[in-house]
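Kindly inspect this today.
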Amino acid sequence: MPGAGSRGPSAGDGRLRLARLALVLLGWVSASAPSSSVPSSSTSPAAFLASGSAQPPPAERCPAACECSEAARTVKCVNRNLLEVPADLPPYVRNLFLTGNQMTVLPAGAFARQPPLADLEALNLSGNHLKEVCAGAFEHLPGLRRLDLSHNPLTNLSAFAFAGSNASVSAPSPLEELILNHIVPPEDQRQNGSFEGMVAFEGMVATALRSGLALRGLTRLELASNHFLFLPRDLLAQLPSLRYLDLRNNSLVSLTYASFRNLTHLESLHLEDNALKVLHNSTLAEWQGLAHVRVFLDNNPWVCDCYMADMVAWLKETEVVPDKARLTCAFPEKMRNRGLLDLNSSDLDCDAVLPQSLQTSYVFLGIVLALIGAIFLLVLYLNRKGIKKWMHNIRDACRDHMEGYHYRYEINADPRLTNLSSNSDV
């Protein structure tokens, strides 16, 4: 058939061309191969591809005391009795948990590595035994956003702990969330006794928080369960970006020295479980001036007397306090458990009658003064003879002295005696 005859020569020519091409390729490969038995990836594309697929880059090592997940970019070194930060942390780590260990000091550059831990965003150091955090402890962590130091008995928190070794020249910290819950040291570890030690502890924390401009980007700060009695003056002055502030479960008795005026972005302020008795008009006015703030005040021992009138009126009008319906009186006894929103101005009075405890104190003071007076009179009675003799001696001395003055007066008053005295002098 013509079609078959026409296809036969073309098919044979194609097979012949393929055979010749195969021979040429084999000759080129054999001619280009080096004399050495080791193949050269630079001259052989096949060898280059084979070597690239057979030798992938080695996986990052994981510290022996830790558990690592490269997929989740997480390293956990939990309850391993570590005394320091592991030196061989993988550079891919984004979330690092170093909790429940035995570290007592966090030195400067504790996380300095080569290559640096540039991707580390969340660092949890809670539940260790940290007593000291040195200046520049968190340097070389440019991506750090969340830091948790809770449940560490800190006795020395450097003023430059979050600001680098020198706050005046170091860049602002990248921190956005700082958790410092329950970092107060035990009472026997505080300096100068309990009250003075607490004041020193509050000042130490305040100094670290307002050091330079280091924490101007901080949006969340937790200081719960630290036994604070007062908020140090200007504690919040250098935290203009703050949105969430947690001061729960402290011992705050007043907010007189705290200023919230600069916290224009503040959204949540938690003051539950403190010792607040009344809030003054200056504090209420500052809260009312913040556009987005919500203040939580439950479980405080409010004293419902005449000083509470302004606060009660403010609570009835404001929407700043979401839990205001749960606020109740703790004192005086007759007002206990009454809701603040249920009080009228007639209910809020300061009784002229002294409280029973104060009456008892005055009675006790009167008894003590009477006893001292009785002892004084008894001493006078027992020494009455000596006192009488002493008084007679004083009387005689005074009489002699007065007689001398009288004699001189008589001489000066008589002209004859005066002339005689003058002649005798001559």
About this structure: The longest helix spans residues 2-32. DSSP finds eight helices and 15 strands in the chain.
